Amino acid sequence: MAISLDNFEAEIESNYDRKSELKSFDDSKIGVKGLVDAGVAKIPRIFIHDHSKISDKPCARNNKHSIPIIDLGGVHTDASRRRQTIDQLGEACQKWGFFQLISHGIPAHVLDGMVDGILQFHEQDIEVKKQFFSRDEKRKVSYNSNFDLYQTKAASWRDSLYCAMSPNPPSPEELPAVCRDITIHYLKKATNLGLTLFELVSEALGLDPNHLKNLGCAEGIFFVGHYYPACPEPGMTLGISKHSDSGFLTILLQDRLGGLQVLHEDQWVDVTPVPGALVVNLGDLLQIMSNDKFKSVYHRVIAKNVGPRISVACFFGTHFEQGTSSSSRLYGPIKQLLSKDNPPIYKETTVRDYVAQVYTKGLDGITGLEYFKL
Description:
Strand order of the largest sheet: 1-2-10-7-12-5-4-3
CATH class: Mainly Beta
Protein name: Fe2OG dioxygenase domain-containing protein
Keywords: Iron, Metal-binding, Oxidoreductase
Family: Belongs to the iron/ascorbate-dependent oxidoreductase family.
Organism: Hevea brasiliensis (Para rubber tree)
Radius of gyration: 21 Å
InterPro entries: DIOX_N, IPNS-like_FE2OG_OXY, IPNS-like_sf, Oxoglu/Fe-dep_dioxygenase_dom
């Protein structure tokens, strides 16, 4: 008796044990890099994304849309330059939720050293790297592939080093030796830059410069070093799927390979690397606090057949860190921004509860904001 193609495909589907494949990959602790090193020509099924998710929106093909570039030169010494920068930043936060920073005060050799440090971590001997492998969210330093491996419908083509760096940093000995010194050095500079950005964002909202800092927005810092190996079938997967960041603000250092895209006016727009620049984007909690005046927007990383691509993200306020004033503080629309014509759109939440919501569902392409609307 003839068997229809539909029935045949259904039978194959019924015999596919996704949980077993996920566990086998995870237990190997080799990450995506290990698959590439083994010479895979076809990506494992757990990494294959629904094509409609990859091609959900068109990609911008011209220069009409480009991420704003903001020059921080003079913001601490020139009042008129500071006012001009605040106006530019405010416009970028309203229209894009993303911008690139130049003249930010972090030397190029520090940026290059940080990228190289993450590259060296991921490319060191696998037996050394395995010592850091963990999915324990309470560990201060860990390495794995896809934090949401068991929640997401399709894994993404990346490995990551995670470090909870503030307010209770790990001891230097807990950090990987291969990138220890540069990580500590870079974090000090990124932290100072973050404090400046919270001042400027506060002023762009019409608030006192210290408003967001006084609310604890700069207390918690979670550091992630991503490694995106070259992919043999880049059109079938993603480096990171569509998502928005859950915290207050993110400072991203990306290498020159590119791949980051932002969803703007219903099109995916490339965040073209600018030498010496840092990428900054707002998180969901700042959109809540601004009552939708400022935006936390969807972004993703496409897979490429060249690599590896390296990026380093400092997430302000996005982890299960205990011992901070912000871990139990309720965050909602800032009262000074509300009025009869601008009533609150969101209910209050703690950082911990918001992040837990995101971790529970994984990067499923749906912002956590939807769960907290009034």
